[in-house]
Amino acid sequence: MPRKVLLVIGDAIEAMDTLYPYFRVQEDGYQIVVTAPEKRVYHMVMHEIPPGWDVTCEGPSYHLASDIAFRDVDPDEYVGLFLSGGRAPEYLRYNQDLMRIVKHFFDRKKPVAVVCHGAEIVATAGVVEGKRMATVPKCQFDIEVCGATFVNERCVRDGNMVSGRTWHDNPWFVGEWMRMLNLYCANQAGGG
After folding, report:
1. Which end of the chain, C or N, has fewer beta carbons within 10 A?
2. What is the arithmetic mean of pLDDT over 152-161?
3. Three-state DSSP state, 11
4. Is there a contact between 30 and 181 (Cβ–Cβ < 8 Å)?
5. Contact by Cβ (8 Å): 89, 124
6. What is the DSSP letter of 166?
7. Does residue 61 register a pLDDT over 80?
8. Quick one: which of 105, 103, 97 has its CA closest to 76?
């Protein structure tokens, strides 16, 4: 049975946050399954702070199709979860099926990776209280008001969750998440 990893997207999901793990997990033999509010094509965006700007500029980017709608996901079928950033988490966090999925991964201590505004999803799910995590600094309030401690580092692991600030941190926190996935699967295969 293939080891399946769930990747959450929606319109205005950040392209670099999403495509790096999309391809990286496949290199280690995992099946990537893209999930979203509905099964359709979604529009990714590119986020960048241009020189001299204080805020993020957003531009259109690639498109990515989801394989399955949130409501149809059986989280027992998946070994890992990736929550991308961009503006999509601002509205995805209100989807009750997504909240059910996220809570499952934390209840079962399966590997979860969170980057940038993906922190808004885990904060809304109520699974970050007492945890240390990284996120883009403008989401610091979102996690702290939900009981987490903001850490301004490229890779922060706390229990089954690893987090990074932005796509610039991908090599560090995605690398740690891959180690977590491989160890989780090895333990499951060994009955642990």
Report:
1. N
2. 98
3. coil
4. yes
5. no
6. S
7. yes
8. 105
**Domains in the chain and their CATH numbers?**
4-189 (3.40.50.880)
114 has a pLDDT exceeding 60: yes
Contact between residue 16 and residue 170 where contact means Cβ atoms under 8 Å apart: yes
Per DSSP bridges, beta strands 156-158 and 161-164 are antiparallel
Instruction: Give pLDDT, residue 16.
Output: 97
Length, in residues, of the chain: 192
3 state SS of 102: helix
The encoded tokens of residue 14 equal: 């950040």
* pTM (global) more than 0.90: yes
Q: What is the DSSP string of 106-165?
A: HHTT--EEEEGGGHHHHHHHT--TT-EE---GGGHHHHHTTT-EE--SS-EEETTEEEES
From CA 44, how far away is CA 159, in angstroms rounded? 30
- Please answer whether residues 84 and 7 qualify as being in contact, where contact means their C-beta atoms are separated by less than 8 angstroms: yes
Share of the chain above pLDDT 70, in %: 98
Average pLDDT, the chain: 96
